[in-house]
Amino acid sequence: MMRGLFDLARPFMLALDPERAHELGLRALEAGLHPRAEGGGDPRLALKVWGLDFPNPLGVAAGFDKNARVPGPLLAMGFGFVEIGTVTPRPQPGNPRPRIVRLIAERAVINRLGFNNEGHAAALARLQAWRRRAGDAGAGIVGVNIGAGRDSPDRVADYVAGLRAFWDVADYFTVNISSPNTPGLRELQAPEALDALLARLMEARRALAGGAEAQDSRVRPIVVKLSPDIEDADLPAIVAVIRAHGTDGICISNTTLARDGVAASPFASESGGLSGRPLFARSTRMLARVWQLTEGRVPLIGVGGIDSAARAIAKIEAGASLVQLYTGMIYEGPGLAARIISGLRAHLDRTGAAHLRTLVGTRADAWAAGEIDTPS
Which residues of 49-65 are buried (b: 16+ CB within 10 A; e: fewer)? Predict the structure, then answer.
């Protein structure tokens, strides 16, 4: 029923300005106009990561719900977790419009939004209100993606401020140092700069947690989100810094400045980060390489080009414990979460695998070597 309604509405939504269409989607979610997950969860999909109980590995990537307006509806649709943001300390308008371009034939998007958001205070108030309404039992896992202001004199301080602001409402934090749309932000991925950033963040976390050990429930996990455009030769040093600080996870990846798979598009010359299906192979190869570098000991979040169960499974086989999507919903609709979850169950039935976790990293070597570039 919901898929049929989406199919009818899809031409209208794709004819609208992308930001207008997204706003209408958020308002529909706020009004409760969305599909709802049916039946109980499948224990074969449930997993514990960072001490958190995820009902399934499928999440909503940052960027969809920048201002924490709809975490509850997204979880009700069947997602195992939601990541809000990117949020900066103060509100900022982002880059001038128009700043989103759809590449419909390629199932892709180019955005140059520039961390447009309402700031810490607005998102925090919404998350606090939602937590109160939902209660501990029904809340679900929500991460907060923190960023730095475009004109901030101390970007590291902005990340620390995000950690402090959302400490009591976030289940985990993602440190976004990889957006291509804030000038100079990606420089924080360089080993020396990253070392300084993580040193201050981990110091702040120890203070906020009262010195608790890493697995204590008072300690919020910290994930670093990397760019898919990092050169392979530079990746070992970056991963080494992340591991040296005891960072809990790595998210791979953000959008790309490359135009692999869209060179023939009339929009290929548009500035900004490319997301969607053309990002899949690049981000999955990098995911596999990071899984190798961490020896499978650091939980990874795989993002980029997921719009089907087959692509979600490929990310898991390349090394992801958790996966996220956003652009896929633009083209596949609000029922995508349920279809992917159903496809994961069907894959386990078909292969006889006892649990989804047994697939993590099983094809990482092949992906990293470039022997695979599409889902099997």
Answer: bbebebbbbbbbbbbbb
Task: Say if residue 1's pLDDT is above 60.
Answer: no
- pLDDT number for residue 215: 65
In a domain, residue 373? The reply is no
Question: Could you tell me what percent of the chain has a pLDDT over 90?
Answer: 89
Q: Which string of DSSP letters, residue by residue, matches 328-348?
A: HHHHH-TTHHHHHHHHHHHHH
C-alpha angle 174-175-180 in degrees, rounded to nearest 5: 115
Average pLDDT score over the chain: 95
Give the CATH number, domain containing residue 72. Answer: 3.20.20.70
* 365 burial level (CB within 10 Å; 0-12, 13-18, 19+): middle
244 is a domain residue: yes
Task: Give the range of the structural domain holding residue 196, as residue numbers without chain letter.
Answer: 2-368
The pLDDT of residue 5 is above 90? no
Across 229-239, average pLDDT: 98
Q: Output the six-digit token pair for 327.
A: 């652009």
Longest dimension (CA), the chain: 55
- The reply to whether 376 falls in a domain is no
- Identity (one letter) of the amino acid at 307? D
User: What string of DSSP letters covers 112-135?
Assistant: ---S-B--HHHHHHHHHHHHHHHH
Give the residue numbers annotated as catalytic, written as ranges: 179
